[in-house]
């Protein structure tokens, strides 16, 4: 191995150890979209985005495959049972078709990802190893209600919420998260604490 490669490997290892963000492979391009139907690759560049509602609008953000299905809006204005999310983090892959219904949205391109140990996560799709360090976690609903799902390299399918009095939601869930596992949450905010 050349000296350059050794230095590069050492620098990347230090960055990961220190929790410094890792550059995203294919960064998207920040843009705003109005309500409508869109295709990734022709209407918006493929990449990772944090999607937020614009101009006080609220409505559905969903893909035709069903892999994206959230209500963007101000959680403080939610009258239907704390299902609104103020942002949704997602990887948009080429040829994915999605709809914005009743909502205009800002798509902020993500350029760096930092794997957390213990912190809050907003609604979105996260990968263990890139966004969350592998390990055993106590996952707690901090704001809103919705689903916590994982089907790749570990199965989770839990309805979570801050109000568990009706018996429909649990407030916390313990999970062992493995590298490569994909975690999807539709809650406004969850907290992960490494055990």
Short characterization:
The protein is mainly β and 195 residues long. It has 1 helix and 17 strands.
How much of the sequence lies in strands comes to over 45%
Radius of gyration using CA atoms only: 18 Å
Largest sheet: 6 strands, antiparallel
Number of strands: 17
Give the terminus-to-terminus CA distance: 37 Å
| SSE pattern | HEEEEEEEEEEEEEEEEE
Number of helices: 1
Protein name: Cell surface protein
Keywords: Signal
Signal peptide: 1-26
Organism: Weissella confusa (Lactobacillus confusus)
Topology of this structure?
Elements: H1 3-17, E1 22-23, E2 31-33, E3 36-39, E4 47-53, E5 59-63, E6 69-72, E7 84-85, E8 88-92, E9 97-101, E10 105-109, E11 112-113, E12 119-127, E13 135-143, E14 145-150, E15 156-161, E16 172-177, E17 182-194
Parallel strand pairs: 6-7
Antiparallel strand pairs: 1-11, 2-10, 3-9, 4-8, 4-10, 5-6, 5-9, 12-17, 13-16, 13-17, 14-15, 14-17
Can you put this structure into words, describing what you see?
- The structure is a single chain.
- This protein is mainly beta and 195 residues long.
- The chain has one helix spanning 3-17, and strands at residues 22-23, 31-33, 36-39, 47-53, 59-63, 69-72, 84-85, 88-92, 97-101, 105-109, 112-113, 119-127, 135-143, 145-150, 156-161, 172-177, 182-194.
- The strands form 4 sheets. Strands 12, 13, 14, 15, 16 and 17 form a 6-stranded antiparallel sheet that branches. A 5-stranded mixed sheet has the order 3-9-5-6-7, with no helix packed on it. Strands 2-10-4-8 form a 4-stranded antiparallel sheet, with no helix packed on it.
- Mean pLDDT is 85; it is low at 1-24.
- It starts with a helix and ends with a strand.
- It is 8% helix and 48% strand.
- The chain is built from 1 helix and 17 strands.
- The chain is globular, with a radius of gyration of 18 Å.
- Strand 5 (59-63) and strand 6 (69-72) form a beta hairpin.
- Keywords: Signal.
- It comes from Weissella confusa.
